[in-house]
Design brief:
heterodimer, A: mainly alpha, Rna Polymerase Sigma Factor, Chain: A, Arc Repressor Mutant, subunit A, 2 domains, 0% strand, elongated, B: mainly alpha, 3 helices, 79% helix, rod-shaped
Chain lengths: 177, 133
């Protein structure tokens, strides 16, 4: 990053190369559309480039980039999927038996099912889950990325996990019946 | 956060880590860099436009003034040069008359020059950062 700010020709291209896949995958999880994810990821890097001068070099780069792509992707979803379920409509908690560590154990062949179940969740939940469990950001970093208080992020994550498990169980039941 | 919540968190993290990730589309980096280069070029285009808008009328005016009053100017400058070299005495003819509009035109050409210089420097800086082929 320092090299990039100093005018090193290949530095920003290297940043795009290094973080491109991570940024693209986060956009993909939030938008659930490859073309939109590609657009959002590109837009995020362009915004990052524009904001280079304001970037605090003492902070890690990845959460900053993920924050930008989260905002870009959520804005995209908001523009194109205004009819999505508002967050308040999602279940507050799963059945006690569902929110157990064992319930999260998923067989390899069921991973695709998890992705499909995730797509039934609101974009904000998808973003929170991906930032927390795929990119392993702290609550504070997620709060910063989603521009929400930490307490709300914790609530979102709790509800998102519950909603994901409920959706998975519903799908399993449907499949077995 | 109790033990069960920690275990649930860990289980979810393990689950997400196992989920398949996709590579960014082919040519992703080049597309991003090309878009940045194009955007940067657009950003400086207005400076070129402003410089031309300011410089062209001023230059036309200065050229027409030079064609019209070129003799007076060269006579005046010649007298000043001779006076400086001590070949002639300083008198009323040892002067060049420049009116306010000519001064304004020269100033505008100067401003246009600054704009063009800034645009060129900024473009060069962007090119070196973005590494445009």
């Amino acid at each position: 990053m320092q090299a990039c700010l100093a005018g090193n020709g290949d530095a920003f291209a290297e940043i795009v190369e290094r973080y491109g896949t991570r940024v693209y995958n986060l956009a993909l999880r939030i938008t659930n559309d490859r073309d939109a994810a590609n657009d959002c990821a590109q837009e995020a890097f362009i915004r990052a480039y524009r904001a280079l001068a304001q970037y605090d070099q003492n902070l890690p780069l990845q959460p900053w980039l993920l924050r930008i792509v989260t905002n870009t992707s959520l804005n995209h979803v908001q523009r194109w999927h205004a009819h999505e379920h508002p967050v308040e409509e999602m279940p507050d908690r799963a059945e006690p038996a569902e929110l157990q560590p064992e319930a999260v154990a998923i067989r390899r062949e069921e991973l695709g099912e998890v992705l499909a179940a995730m797509n039934a969740l609101p974009a904000r939940y998808r973003a929170a889950l991906t930032l927390r469990h795929l990119h392993e950001l702290s609550y504070e970093e997620i709060a910063h990325a989603l521009e929400l208080p930490i307490g709300t992020v914790k609530t979102h994550l709790h509800r998102a996990r519950a909603a994901l498990l409920t959706e998975l169980h519903r799908r399993r039941k449907e499949r077995t019946s | 956060m109790n033990d069960r919540d920690t275990n649930v968190e860990r289980a979810f993290t393990e689950l997400f880590q196992r989920m398949p990730t996709e590579h960014a589309p082919l040519g992703f980096r080049d597309t991003v860099m090309a878009r940045i280069a194009a955007e940067s070029a657009r950003r400086w285009r207005w400076e070129w436009l402003a410089a031309f808008a300011v410089a062209i009328p001023s230059l036309i005016f200065l050229m027409s003034t030079l064609i019209e009053h070129g003799d007076e100017l060269s006579d005046g400058l010649g007298s000043i040069a001779n006076a400086l070299l001590g070949l002639e005495a300083w008198d009323a003819s040892t002067s060049v008359y420049v009116d306010g509009i000519v001064l304004l035109a020269v100033a505008l050409v100067g401003i246009a020059g600054l704009l063009v210089t800034h645009a060129l420097l900024a473009e060069e800086q962007t090119r070196s950062r973005v590494h445009v082929a």
